Amino acid sequence: MLRPDLTCSQHEQEYIEALKESDRLQVFQPKVAEVWRLAFKTPPPSTPRTFVILLLTKETKPDPRGERAFINISIPFHHPDCVPKEGKEKSRVRGKYVSVERIQETEGGRSVEWRMATSSDAGGDIPQILTRVSLPSSIAEDVPCFLEWLAKRSI
User: Fold this and answer.
1) What's the confidence (pLDDT) of residue 35?
2) Which ranges carry the DUF3074 domain (predicted)?
């Protein structure tokens, strides 16, 4: 069963090993427009990263076959409760992340197609070219972890 709430930031910490903290900072509309703080542990010698995003989720109307789809959009967001280099963020570098995902049932709901376009800036001293080169493989590594996690949820 396709469920938009199973792809949101609150669950990512359960299947993305590097994600150490995920905090919902603000809810404009539950499961539709929420601000999240995502804190990642990074391999030495790099500094841990925090990404603050506005997560927008919209379920679309089912097509004539009854197949459902939804769209997730994540965009960088400045939030007053998560100021870079203050408090909990003092020892972290602020990165930026944007993505557009379309998740759609196919084959009468027996299969799911997940399309994603994304860009990221790790911030700090990590050259942008390294982020561009490593991002696709990093996302690809998360897919089997997500599918394993989803299978354990027995939905």
Assistant:
1) 96
2) 8-150
Residue 67, pLDDT score:
84
51 strand-pairing partners:
38, 95
Q: How many structural domains compose the chain?
A: 1
Residue pointed to by tokens 């991002």: 135
Which pLDDT belongs to residue 1? 46
Question: CATH number of the domain that 16 lies in?
Answer: 3.30.530.20
Consecutive 10-residue runs of the chain (155 residues): their mean pLDDT?
56 80 93 93 88 94 82 95 87 93 85 87 81 72 71 66
**Long-range CB pairs of 122-129, under 8 A, 24+ apart, other chains included:** 122/46, 122/49, 122/93, 122/95, 123/49, 123/93, 123/94, 123/95, 123/96, 124/46, 124/47, 124/49, 124/93, 124/95, 126/46
The pair of three-digit structure tokens given for residue 57, joined into one six-digit string: 């989720």
Residue 71 backbone dihedrals phi, psi, to 5 degrees: -125, 135
Distances (CA, A) of 95 to 23, 60, 137: 16, 30, 18
Range of the domain at 148: 4-152
> Which among 115, 103, 106 is positioned nearest to 65, based on CA atoms?
106
Q: 86: burial class by Cβ within 10 Å (0-12, 13-18, 19+)?
A: exposed
